[in-house]
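Now for our target.
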Amino acid sequence: MLKKSFILFVAAGSLLLFSCNKSMKRTKLDTEIKKVSYSLGISAGTYYAKQGLDSLDVNAFAMGLKDAITQDTSNMKMSEMEANVVLQKFFTQLSQKKSEAAIKEGKDFLAENAKKDNVVTLADGLQYKILKEGSGPKPSATDKVKVHYTGKLLDGTVFDSSVERGEPITFQLNRVIPGWTEALQLMPVGSKWRLFIPSDLAYGERGAGQTIPPNSTLIFDVELLGIEK
C-alpha cells in the first residue's frame, strides 16, 4: 500500500502546478514556509518528470489535496484505501508500459547495431565489437579476472565506471551478469571490447537499484587486464 505521505507529496505538487496554471502569479520567496513550499514543488515536479506523469488532471489533484488536508469527509470522493487501490493499479500499469518500452528499445537498438561493421552477434543475442585485440590467455568461468570497464545505458548515461574511479576491479567470472561471463571467456588478456548486452543477459526485469531500469539493454567497454591466480 502506498503511504499517505507519498499521496500528499504527489497531490501537493499538483496543487502548485494548478495554482500556477490558473493565475501565473509569481510569489516572492520571502518567508521560510514559502521557500519550503517552493522546494516541495521542485521536488514534486522533478519526480513527475522522471515518472513520465505529464497528463494528470491537476484540478482533481488540487481537490483531493484540499479534501485530505481539511479532512472534509463530506466532500471526499473516495476513501484513503480506495485511493491507494487506484494508485497501485495506475503505477503498476505505468511500470508495465515502461518495461515494454524498454524491451522494444533494446530489441530495436540491437537489430540496427547488428548491421554495423565489425559488430559480432552471438546466438543468444549478445553482441561485441573488438576495440583492441590482446594476445594473452582467455579466462575460464571459474577464474578471477581483473578488468577496467565503463557501463552505459542506451541513452549514453554512465551508470558505473572503474575507469572514472581510477581503480580496476577483480571478481570471479561466473559471479557477474551472464553477458559478462560469456563475453570475457572469449577475450584474450590485453583485449578491450565493447559489449552490447540484451536485458535478459544483464539485470532483466529487476534492473539494478536506481541506476539501471528494468529490462535495460546495456553497453560496456571492458578491458581485460589479467587473470588472477
About this structure: Strands lie at 119-121, 127-132, 144-152, 158-161, 169-172, 192-197, 218-228. The chain has six helices and seven strands.
